[in-house]
Amino acid sequence: MFDSEQFKIITIQMTKIFFYLMFLLVAVSSIAQTDFGNYKTLQSKGVIPEDFTKSTKSKLDDDLAQKKTDLTASQEKILFEGTNYAIDELLHSGLVVYGDEISKYATEIVDRLLRNDPSLRSELRIYTIKSNETNAFSTDQGIIFVTTGLMSQITCEAQLAFVLAHEIAHYQKKHVLETFDWKLKNARHSDQIVKLSNYSKEKEFEADKGGLALYSAAGYGKDYVFETFDVLMYSYLPFDDIEFPFAYFNSTNMYVPTSLFPKKKYEIKAIEDYDDSNSSHPNIKKRKEAVEKEIDSYSNWETADQYLGQNRFETVRNIARFESVRTDLLDASFGSALYSVFLLERDFPTSAYLKRMKAQIWLNLMLYKKQNKSNKTIDNSSDLEGESAAVHFLLKKLTKDGMTTLALRQVYDLHKQYPEDEEISAVYAKFIKDLAEIKTFKIENYSKKKFSEAANDFLKDKTDTTVQLQDTVKSGSKYDRIKKKKNVDNASNFDTTKFYLYGIGDLLADSSFVQAYNSNIELVKKLEEEKEQFEILSQSERKKAMAKEQDNHLRLGLEEVIVVEPKVYSYKANSLDPIKSEKIEGIFSESIESAADDLGVKVYPIDRRTLSSKGTEGFNERNTLISFLTQIAQEDDINAFPADFQALKEIRQNYGTNRVMFSLVEHSRSADINWWLVAGSAFIYPTLPFTLGMYLPMKIFKSNHMEMNVIILDLEKGIAETGQSYYWNEPTYKHNLGSHMFNIFNTLKSKPL
Amino acid sequence: MKFLIVTIFACLFQYSVISQNTGLYGKRTFIEVNTVSNMPIFSWLLYDNKGYSASGAGNSLIQKKDLFDYGFRLSIGRSGKKNTGFSFEVGYSFTNLATPEYASLEDYTSVSYKHERLDVKTFSFMPKIEFTSKGGTLPVGLNHQIGFGISSSKIVEKDYNYQVFNYSGQLTNEEVASFSKNLVNYENKYSGMTFLYAFNIRTPLSKSLMINYGIRYTLNLKNMFVSDIGTDQKYYPEDEVRTDLKRMRLTNVLSFNLGFTYAL
Predict the structure, then answer these.
(1) How would you label A129-140 residue by residue, b for 16+ Cβ within 10 Å and e otherwise?
(2) Which residue of B has its CA nearest to A738?
(3) What is the Cα–Cα distance from A749 to A557, expressed in whole angstroms?
(4) Which of A709, A733, A744 sits opposite B203 (nearest CB)?
(5) Torsions phi, psi for B188 (to 5 deg)
């Protein structure tokens, strides 16, 4: 038997062991769950929180009922309408996830920070935003958002803990509400921007101070606070700064000359004491100084940099870093994406996900270069900093043929390396198809030799002056000499700037590549012939053909479609009315379903109304589809390959259709009456009857402005199949929307003429 | 997010309008019933002769403006596959006409009188073209209508209140008693061509029913003719009636319509 003291000690020990085992179990299971080889983009997990299913209107009503502030009822309405709407737009933007590894990790840190304040803890929810911005922020509704960008940049748990503590302090001190109140009281100040900046900085100092108290009490070490500021200062750089090897793209078949890489290192320019006079946040130097003073007021500092384990931290951070590649891909920041892949490949050299991303990056680089838009996807020369500059520099320096060939080399190699990988095969197939459309790319211009062979021949040729002389003297006609000059396999024609001409010799010998390329060339030729035939038509015939083409534009023979989040923006005066917009959104969704039903078109709605029943699966599907739309919309003349190829395939299989519809309605009321004209008319008496009897009524009747946009995406082809904009002088009543949707579905359902 | 979505759609589409299916939920044939009304404001502004109305009991008359005219219209139409359609309209409208206050007699003398405004009923028949701006979906929404048809007015015979004051002329008691009956030829029909321009909004209330409202501008063309001309000389001669009717209809150029449209 144990005495009570012994029993107590044993109990404590047992409890510790239990929690230690539990911790290990959680940590191990968390690691086991993330397969970075076949990584899938971060998805929401668990039960869908109320924040995502509740309407903006009911959130507003709840906030108003609580009477949280001393503001008047109308001021509160403006405040809470604005904040709830903005938050809901973000929650439903396709960028936010809940219950995922990052949110869970941040949530556990918040648990620790607020272990002594369960009441405050119960008010907070933590979600992740898929964004490469390094940021976190809290809202007055008690939501803390953490970006994947922030998670990818930090080096330990404690840094995230300080950021979260800072955000909790903002919430605790009601800074959002105070700032709104301040703005109301100082609305008429001439130097409002400077004053607001100063006011905002005060709040940031307060949040640092309040956050430090929570952070210290949670047992994290003080040194990591300063490291957090370093994270923020250098957050515009990639998540690591490692030298990019110039031989990275070289292989037995391809050599990229070092002359294409920068000859100097690009300095990192960030400084702590930058001018913050118009910023909302104080500069890093001031924040560090303020925190340094505050740190001394806490005597019981501990030294921990983590409580959730190093493995767990690294797993979560790697998730964020994998996400950064996808985010860059969606944002068409291909230079940054390529550098991030390089960084991650060092730890995950065999990750199929990274290979897939790499194949997609190169395909997109080729597509953007083809349309002369690649500069948009690479950092500006003036922005080059750190080691990643080498990648941007190279991509900038590559000619169209150089980029196309290097991209082809990379995608071809990946396809050969992973012949069974469906995604890489699809990228490869699309690459060959688009390659055939590049007129400057001709396989007959390419050498069968490798770069090294051509270089050796060149050197040999240069040194063997006898042969050169004989050649010059003996070679035949002028035309033979011209042909020889044009022949890439002629040793004397070797040029390092055209390194790419010696990079695909093995592809030219690969019958499957040549066959695939040639069959796509045939398709291109066929299209060109059709175009030529069109050109020789008479004007009236052309008009007729174009009208038929336009008519067929929307005739898809549509039978089934996934309808995602029909959006409505209804404006009063010049500003958006979020509550009315939300109400009409509900009506619009019902109208779409009813119209489709009348025509026998099967509709699968995925919108805010259906989230309660569809739950997390529906939410994830919706996020994936919104991301796809975002990607497609980057450039209207570029059909980007869908970044979430696998997830889209699953959606196709789940619903049994390839088609997705997005729709948007914008409505405003404005008569646009020219009152000067009316006044003028009163002076010129005889015109008054026309003004009053015709001009004014016409303007009033035309005061409703409704614009409807509908787009159908093809998930299998990865393209926007069709889209159309409509404009009517009509209100957004149920049957106005329904009737128009009926007509649109009727057209979509019909077969091409 | 809002900016993102709007930008996405703006990026994806240039404004282009193609033909599309029209109709209210695909229904393109429609029957329409309208009430048409107007306040003859221009008449008030332009003319001094307000006319008389019966007041209270007895035969007393008071000078009073014509405050309100009205009518009914029935039309049937069909919208085309693009943004045009056609319809036929029949209408029946009621207005009234202020009489002159003096009548010349055959012996070149005259009498003065006050007569209750004469009721006028007008029947019209008109084919119309309807059209919308590009992309419109007739019959729903804002549409413009242009019509060209025939209208025929007739003065309603009934017991009007009136007072006759013998001025330079002399009327017998019998003639005074039958003054109203002999004022105008009630059998006459005053017909003419009518041109219509209207803009109208049809707002759907259900999958078949729409409420419609709008403004109509009717122009009665100059060559109004009189049919069934009577033979008797009247105190208010036909050519004057015709002129006054033309003037009245011209000043009633603008009217409002409100009704229902049923789509088949």
Answers:
(1) bbbbebebbbbb
(2) B25
(3) 4
(4) A733
(5) -65, 140
